[in-house]
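A quick aside before the break. I want you to see a complete sequence-to-structure record at least once, exactly as it would be stored in a machine-readable document. Don't worry about memorizing anything.
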Amino acid sequence: MDVVRIQRAGQALQLKGRVLVEGQDGSLLLQTRDGVIWVVQADELRWRDQDTAPFAPLDREALGQRLLAQLPAGFQLHTTDHYVVAYNTSTAYARWCATLLERLHRAYFRFWEKRGFELRRPEFPLPVIVFDDRADYAAFSRDELGEAASAVIGYYNFRTNHMVMFDLTGLAQPSRTRRRRFSSSQIRQLLAQPGSERNVATIVHEATHQLAYNTGLHTRYAVNPFWLAEGLAIFFESPDLKNASGWRTIGRVNRFRLAEFRRNASQRAADRLEQLLTDDSLFRNARTAPAAYADAWALTYYLFRRRPKDFAAYLKEMSKLEPLEELTAKERLKQFRKYFGADLEQLDRDLVRYVGRLR
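That is the input. The structure line, written in tokens, reads:
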């Protein structure tokens, strides 16, 4: 393992792990045993050496203890086969989250195996942090999300590899004047209500990002096209309110995104597909983001249903992106056309017709 000492924000830190990328200027992309990736600038580096120990990820217990050391007092751990959940809410809610995540994990691998897509099993236990309420979650997340911390209910951080969220039963309660603790059966009933649909979908969405970046579908710190990363997560997120957990299967028609897509269909620009493939800023702008997310879902759904073999081949090529690798707009279009043809406007017309017939 590589051992480095850095000076950051007036603090001396020693990090031990493996170097993923070394820049010509001496900067490093270093991954520690908890799965966190550190971006070390050349002027931060004070000392570097190697020891004889091979790199080995922390096990669930050790990772859990490291999580607890980074969190405020009062957090506990709940571990499953694949997840380490640190929480300061009720044990029943932590278990509900873990059950939902394990259900997704099983379905995720079955989905790709049926399509002949070989994924690696996560090298690290998957860390999840669950706060009791939105205020504490926002305070913790502000350094990572800025002002957006108060606007989102959960997220995956591809630097730390953490999925962070809060107890959604606080949003689902009719009255929020008094916090209540629910049993497992009450949590399932509360979060299976129609009003909780988007909240549960968001958790599945972010958990899908975590799986994608830990199984070789995407590469952490590669500049993956937004439409692809977000389209896949939305494809997996579609909730099933008839199921006790609020989610059961992959690839259902996403009614929320479908409605948004149809609202915009009559004003769709002829070069809309090219914009979606090349311009990630569409997803970052509050005015254009709703339509971009809907289009990303529609394109992903269409390709899975109408061009599954071509889409699988395209995904395999995109999964080979290296950390810090970024394709230009021209390169993105070339890669896409390699598998789906040169006439993007015709493809877009086919997409609009197909999605328009969905029920």
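Two observations worth writing down. Residues 255-356 form one domain. Residues 229 and 344 are 20 Å apart (CA to CA). We'll return to this after the break.
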